[in-house]
């Protein structure tokens, strides 16, 4: 009898503990002002083929500083600390921006980033590098786009046919505080066999849009959630936008409003390994707070499961989400006036176990 009780106790206690832990959201501070370059903004993260996590961000004196560079750092598999950031891309006398690091197929790690040629991002181009040794060393940079105003921000989507889609946008207008209505999102499609890039149509909307994030739902059907364009003045009509493709990602519909508020801030959208969909965004019309995670279990029909993972009197911007081999969800975002990079880690149950109360 004693043995039976002991076995039951040992069986019940870890189960309860595991259930509680599965609903935790762990938040870690990655880098702050203690590292060179006070400004640290859009950060991206990927899991490398060897299981390490690799992070990239751009930093320097400020958003439009000509001294900005792209930095990279590594968290080795099985450890909890990050290596000191090192410069992995820097163009003399020109500002860098919006790095996207991604472990692609065939052992190639891609780094895409923005290079500014003028006073605003409407003067930008996109450059790239690759690594064939797990982000230890990088190739020389090469130009990905030459069209003025082209920019990158989000994680590529590896399609079922082996191609991948790189989210792109073209920012128009000369005002640093707002984008013009002609700002629009699109995708570059890469074919590994031919080593060629082709461009989709531009996704248009009433006041412009940028920084689409994409997920493939089946062979032909893809969905993108997109940041709305415009300015940063108080606005009660700004929503996250949505576009879709019915031909495998070659052509896209105009972007339409969703139910999700958007204060002109970046969102991320991710298909999880079980087919569920994750959207992370700022649940506010005017503030980049709170940072909210929503999950759909019915193929993008509804998002009843939501939870704020950061909030209060601060800003939580440019979320970037991945799911690692152990099925944990990782979200990188910036805070403290773009000086600090944060790292949230949780299981899907941390969101789906909660009833949404905005």
Which helices and strands occur, and which strands form pairs?
Blueprint: H1 2-22, E1 25-31, E2 39-47, E3 53-60, E4 69-75, E5 86-89, E6 96-103, E7 109-116, E8 124-131, E9 142-145, E10 150-152, E11 157-158, E12 164-170, E13 184-191, E14 196-199, E15 209-216, E16 222-228, E17 239-245, E18 256-261, E19 268-271, E20 277-282, E21 291-296, E22 305-310, E23 317-323, E24 329-335, E25 340-346, H2 349-352
Antiparallel strand pairs: 1-25, 2-3, 3-4, 4-5, 6-7, 7-8, 8-9, 10-12, 11-12, 12-13, 13-14, 15-16, 16-17, 17-18, 19-20, 20-21, 21-22, 23-24, 24-25
What report would you give on this structure?
With 358 residues, this protein is mainly beta. The protein has a domain at 32-148: 6 Propeller (Neuraminidase), CATH 2.120.10.10. It is built from 2 helices and 25 strands. It has helices at 2-22, 349-352; strands at 25-31, 39-47, 53-60, 69-75, 86-89, 96-103, 109-116, 124-131, 142-145, 150-152, 157-158, 164-170, 184-191, 196-199, 209-216, 222-228, 239-245, 256-261, 268-271, 277-282, 291-296, 305-310, 317-323, 329-335, 340-346. Strands 10, 11, 12, 13 and 14 form a 5-stranded antiparallel β-sheet that branches. A 4-stranded antiparallel β-sheet has the order 1-25-24-23, with no helix packed on it. The chain starts with a helix and ends in a 6-residue tail after the last helix.
